[in-house]
Each structure stands twice: as structure tokens, then as C-alpha cells.
Amino acid sequence: MTDSAIIFLRPGKEAAVKRFHPWIFSGAVGKTEGKLCEGDQVRVLSSRGEFLAIGHWAEGSIAVKLFSFEDVPVDSAFWTGKLRKAWRLREQLGLTDATYDNGYRLVFSEGDGLPGLIIDYYNGTAVIQAHSHGMYRQKEMIVSGLIDIYGEALKAVYDKSSETLKKRGTETRSTKDNPSDEGPGNPSDNHYLYGSRRKGEILETGHRFRVDWEKGQKTGFFLDQRANRMFAQHYAGNRKVLNLFCYSGAFSVYAIKGGATLVHSVDSSRQAIDLVRENFLLNGIDPDQHPCFIADAKKLAGETREKYDMIILDPPAFAKTHTVSNNALHAYVYINAAALRLLNPGGLLFTFSCSQAITRELFNTALYSAALASGRTIRVLHRLSQGPDHPVSIFHPEGEYLKGLILAVE
Fold it and tell me: Which residue of 48, 76, 163, 319 has the fewest CB atoms within a 10 Å radius of its CB?
């Protein structure tokens, strides 16, 4: 097999690859053969010339993201096979049965052996986010694979890579060699790769939700919290609930359906609050019975005098990288301590961190500090993570980004 470039690792640096870790850091790269451009496919060899893997080259600390540990042709059939394997796992999980669920994550990057690629499926529309130029350049074959898997059920494919794929000063070969590629298809241009705009609405465990993949956060809906929302529904009965950083109000819908007496939903975005009200109506809930507030959730938690029986605290990532994790820890301590003070005795706190840079140990430390600051007695009822359609490779534990706890507060 020959490709445009070959990378030889430094002596002794092949161990991680042989353990199937999908990242090669720049410090492990020895010599190279052939021209290297951002996103190029490369073959990775040991210092002795032994084949190790195939991946995509990138400028930065992670030099290669590996998608095959076998020496095979990387063609349309290869990508379709990868996508079909991911789909079969979701089928086994019962997520492809549209009776109660028709929205799920089809591809979760390293967890599905496709580092740099996210695909969410929303009731006939697949939303793609490429996190690497290498995966972005495979988009046509990925669309072809999706059509092969879903057939007529697939109505549209939307590329939303501009939020995740920024040009780093290194042109992709496809753009440099083909100036016509500067138009639609450029990473800065979100657009439909297949089909056209359609209304987004999904079922999740029988609940209905509006999904705006064009203007909404991420791909439009936070599918990773599905199982955790079911916990909220289970525990919400006869409780007054506060949902901070509510976004689309999915946790609020589950809590109300679980018998919550009152739910307050808070987000700083008017667009998000409008979406909450729309989702209430879709599920037969009167928005006037469960008020929504456009406010800074962090500020409100620190200033309100109201008390609640259950609080859901699912903030955006306070730390994008490890270099800012210390500031993020202070933020987690503050917001959790504020939430703990708002809970009635016997209350429940659902608290989460979606910052990959914050490990579970660091998150636990933040909660310990918040408990001390609030003076409350706390017991851990559940330790939570992302849903099973966001699988974590045993060889890539970094894929577990969502950490959550359900705490009983006295």
C-alpha cells in the first residue's frame, strides 16, 4: 500500500500505537517521507519500518489521528464500513427504532474509530461536524456511506464544521490544488451536502423536541444527556425544580413529565428560552405554569432567595484546555456551592461538567470544596456519564468527557 506520505516514529515511541491509542503526538514523530499538508492521509511506521497504522496528519501537538490499525485500502467502501459498524451498535442499543427515539449520535469520533468526526442523526437529517481537515476532506464519501446505510429514510445531510474546524494557516491540499473549492464546501461555510432544509423535530424516549441544527448550539441538541434526563424524570415527582443553563429545556420537560410541581428554567439566551417554550407546547405543557427566565444562571444562583427541592446544573464547558483548568475549578466550586445553598433539606442536585480538561477526580474535588463552602451534608447517589451512543474506547479513556453526579443534600 502507498500513500502520499510516510511517518516514521522515533525509536521506542510505537508502544502507544500498538496499544491502539488513536493519537500520535508531535514529539513521537521522527523522519517523514513525502510532502505533508494539513489533513493528508499518512502511513505510520516504526523506526524500523514496521507498519503500525493509517491516519490523518495535522499541525499541532496531536500530529496524527489514527483511523485504521490495519494495512487496508482507504476508499469509499472503507468509510461506509466504518459508518455501518457505528450504525449497528446504535441498532443494538435500540436507538434506531423510531417508536420512542429517532435522534441519536451515529458517530462519536475516537469512540467509533473515526477520530475527528461527529455525526448526529435527527429523524432523517444527519448533521456532520468535522474536527479535523482529514475527516472534512472525506465528506463526499461519508455522505455516500450515509445514503447507503439509511436509503430513502435519509432526507438531508448538513455540514456544520465551521464551528469546529478553523483554518490554521495551512491550506488543505484540496483547496490549494483546486481554487474552485473556495466556495461551498469551505470549512467556513455551513451548508447542506445532501437534500435541503427541513423542520427539525425528534422523539427522545417518547418526548418531542425541536432541533435547530443550523443556528442551535453544537449540532442542535445535547443527545449525550438522554439517560441522565431519565433520572431527572424518575426523581422529580412532587418537587420544585430549578434548571440552570437550561438551553432547550429538555431536562425541564422530563422533570415536568415526572410529576414536578413547578419547574423554573434559566438561560442567558432569549433564543434558548423561546426554544424551551416551544418544547413545552410540543409536549402538552403550559409554559405559563412553569416560568422561564432570561438571566445569567451563575449570577441568579448566587443572588436568588428562592428554595428548591431539585436543581439541575449543566453549565457549558468552563475549561476548553488543561491550561485554564484551575480557573474552571473555581467556577465549578462557586456555582455548585451556590446551588447547594438553594436546596431544601432532602433536596437533590444533578451536577455536570462537560469539560474534557476537567477529570472526574478534579470534578469530585470541586464538589468536595463546594460542600465545605455551603456547610451542607452530601451523599452521592449516582455517578453519571454520557449516553451509550457516545461510546468510549477502552484504549482512549480521554473520550469520557461528561462527568455527572446526583447528590442527596441534607
Answer: 48
